[in-house]
Amino acid sequence: MKKALVILRKIFNKILNLIFPETCMFCDSDGHVLCENCRYEIDKKFRPEKSNLEIDGNLINFISAFNYNGIVAQVIKKFKFGHKNAGEFLSKYLKRAMDFYKINFDMITFVPMSARKQENRKFNQSEILAKKLSEIVDRPVFCLLKKSKENLEQKGLDFYQRKSNVRNVYEFDNNMTKKIEDKKIILIDDILTTGATIIECSRLINSKKPKEIICLILAKVNNTTTS
Q1: Which DSSP helix (H) or strand (E) runs through 189?
Q2: Residue 51 pLDDT more than 80?
Q3: Residue 88: CB atoms within 10 Å
Q4: DSSP states along 40-102
Q5: 3-class secondary-structure state, position 125
Q6: Does this model's pTM top 0.70?
Q7: 86-100 and 125-137 helices cross at what angle (nearest 10)?
Q8: From the CB of residue 19, how many other CB atoms can be counted at a distance below 10 Å?
Q9: Were 219 and a residue from 60, 66, 105, 166 both cysteine, which residue would form a disulfide, CB within 3.0 to 4.6 Å?
Q10: Average pLDDT, stretch 87-94?
């Protein structure tokens, strides 16, 4: 049923695009959410990287698809702030990064957004990436965490300020504890800057004893804390 709905949605979107053609979100040329030239430029920037960090005694792997600069950074910003349809295209690079490192896993989750911020933006970009990846790889996606407290914007803070800023603002859904036992989990976020947010989310999930957590990030800023 799920696969049939995905196919029907794609057919509907193609018909809709014929009636109301999209323009490229980056250069405004006709034809698609991203035109062929912009797709080509983004594809050239694909640079999968793998690093790791010990969190509460467990080694957590971090995999990114791009470095956060140039056209990639600009497209991700546009995706985050309104161009929701770009999620399908961008999620394919998450799949390519996993394939590059031959990653096997059981389920997908994502870094949550506060209810207020999600209401303002209308969607959580990390959730969109997770759901699109789920469609590609036929693995379930679950909301394991919620952001229960508002905090300061992370932008402009250093690693230690960011680490303090995200402490105790996320909660694990305890109804999901049994479901993640002995499971390999992909945790998705769009951008890795210092890593403070996704490290805190990993710490919470890791406390419920899954088999493994792999942090999958669309783009990585070069001054991150992982090694």
Answers
A1: strand 184-192
A2: yes
A3: 18
A4: HHHHHT---EEEEEEETTEEEEEEEEEES-HHHHHHHHHHHTT-TTHHHHHHHHHHHHHHHTT
A5: helix
A6: yes
A7: 60
A8: 6
A9: 66
A10: 96
Note the pLDDT of residue 19. 47
Pairwise CA distance, residues 216 & 156, whole Å: 23
Buried b (16+ CB within 10 A) or exposed e, 50-72: ebebebeeeebbbbbbbbbeebb
DSSP notation for 87-110? HHHHHHHHHHHHHHTT---SEEEE
Question: Is the sign of the CA dihedral 113, 61, 128, 131 positive or negative?
Answer: negative
Q: Is the pLDDT of residue 12 over 90?
A: no
Structure tokens at 141: 């996606």
Nearest CA to 40 out of 67, 71, 13 is that of: 71
**Burial class of 14 by CB neighbour count within 10 A (0 to 12, 13 to 18, 19+):** exposed
Say what the pLDDT of residue 105 is: 97
Contacts of 7 (CB under 8 A, 6+ apart): none
Query: Rounded to an integer, what distance in angstroms lies between the CA atom of residue 163 and that of residue 174?
Result: 23
pLDDT tens-place string over residues 191-208: 999 899 999 999 999 999
For CA atoms 198, 80, 122, 108, give the dihedral sign. Answer: negative
CB distance 141 to 134 below 8 Å: yes
State how far the Cα of 83 lies from the Cα of 32, in Å rounded to an integer: 12
User: How many residues comprise the chain?
Assistant: 227
